[in-house]
Design brief:
One of its GO terms (cellular component) is plasma membrane. Part of the tripartite ATP-independent periplasmic (TRAP) transport system. Keywords: Cell inner membrane, Cell membrane, Membrane, Transmembrane, Transmembrane helix, Transport. This protein has one domain (2-178). It is 74% helix and 0% strand. It has helices at residues 2-10, 19-52, 60-82, 89-92, 97-130, 150-178. The model has no long low-confidence stretch (mean pLDDT 93).
Length: 180
């Protein structure tokens, strides 16, 4: 019981300005934490198979790369929802509450615009990674011996997260604007 209480105390919560989307993002954070644990297990399995049994896997390396990559990409959205992104606190901490509010609105609008533009760029990449020149659906694969579709999936995931980040920053801007 004490362990569950500690886990709840250590869990990051979204800031109120992040709204419903922020709360959903922080709840999803546990899924991506599990992905990191699974990638560690895959690495351990690969080491045992390679050096213990001289039978390396075809899938472990690419699986670990994919799991850690989606976790790091999701981390940007998580940081926005929990207000844990990088900030130049030397300047920010010197601001009055009214100026901080103005900075929060401005930063959120700039970030919403930037992530919207990155979403568009990601869409251009996704078009090539998901459809053939003839227009047939086919996810880009790695080209390795295992040849999973993880590059295509990663590009789709990145675009989706960028879209959600753009929405999250817009929600933050609106809610900072509403706050007195």
């Amino acid at each position: 019981m004490a362990h569950q209480t500690e886990a709840k105390e250590n869990r990051q919560e979204s800031i109120p300005e992040a709204g419903v989307l922020g709360r959903l993002v922080t709840r999803l954070g546990d899924v991506f934490a599990i992905a990191i644990v699974l990638s560690a297990c895959a690495l351990i399995f690969e080491v045992v198979m390679r050096y213990g049994f001289n039978a390396p896997t075809k899938w472990a390396h690419e699986t670990v790369i994919f799991l850690t990559a989606i976790t790091f990409v999701f981390g940007g959205l998580y940081a926005a929802a929990t207000n844990k992104h990088i900030r130049v606190v030397l300047i920010y901490d010197l601001l009055t509450p009214q100026l901080r509010r103005a900075f929060n609105i401005g930063i959120s609008l700039v970030c919403a615009t930037a992530t919207a533009l990155f979403s568009w760029a990601a869409w251009l990449v996704v078009q090539r990674a998901v459809w053939t020149p003839a227009g047939e659906f086919r996810l880009e694969t790695s080209g390795s011996a295992w040849d999973p579709p993880t590059p295509g999936l990663m590009k789709l995931f990145l675009m989706g997260i960028l879209i959600l980040m753009s929405v999250q920053f817009a929600v933050l801007a609106v809610n900072y604007l509403r706050r007195k």
